[in-house]
Fold this protein.
Amino acid sequence: MTDIVEVRGLTVRYDGATALDGVDLTVGDHEMVALIGANGAGKSTLVKALSGLVRPDGGTVEVRGRLAQVPEGREMFGDLSVDDNLRLGGWRNGRAGRDTSGVYELLPELGEIRRRRAGALSGGQQQMVAIGRALMSRPDVLVIDELSLGLAPLVVRTLAAHLRDLHRTRGLAVLLIEQNARLALDLCDRAYVLETGRVAVQGKALDLEKDPRVTAAYLGGHVEEAS
Ligand SMILES: Nc1ncnc2c1ncn2[C@@H]1O[C@H](COP(=O)(O)OP(=O)(O)OP(=O)(O)O)[C@@H](O)[C@H]1O
Ligand SMILES: [Mg+2]
């Protein structure tokens, strides 16, 4: 399997404070990978390094394909319609693609609200817009910084189902940044746990679900019996 994202020894400092310290992480072609970690662990810093918004102080970042990101906080243009937000997504991601119909095919719920003002939408709808906007550039890999933050469980399940579909039908690779470890491990094949700028644990999601280091700190200390 070729890696579409390859991060080696990544170190990032902000004014001398180390946010990432020698991080190795890969996302294979068509793979779904989760990045779990507490507040301040360095997750968003890694996302920013992938899209070139922060410069590494050490190590390398390679992206072999088109990367699009759903930024933390979604960053809508609140006064613009859903449709205009999608178009701006195509433009922002370096494509003149103005045709939003493909995205409405993938996310039919968005078609129903295409003329509404983005700022008036619910959090879940806005997250859907943010995902749609990222898809406008027809990415090979989608990086989502906090899928579930502030959203009701049912909404999260809907978004997760869409991601799984995009992964299955279009082979989209996904790097999912999540504080909800249960969700991340359910959805992804492989995961990394980031602790104060370092990878503390990594492996297959199925193994991490049973790993005491993960269950204690990220899954409420409770291991569910296998049935
Ligand atoms: N622009 C910045 N200037 C200075 N320090 C920063 C900056 N951005 C992040 N940091 C610091 O770097 C560390 C990692 O932050 P980062 O936002 O990457 O964490 P995170 O894992 O995304 O956290 P959260 O779960 O709260 O989103 C934190 O200690 C944070 O305070
Ligand atoms: Mg963050």
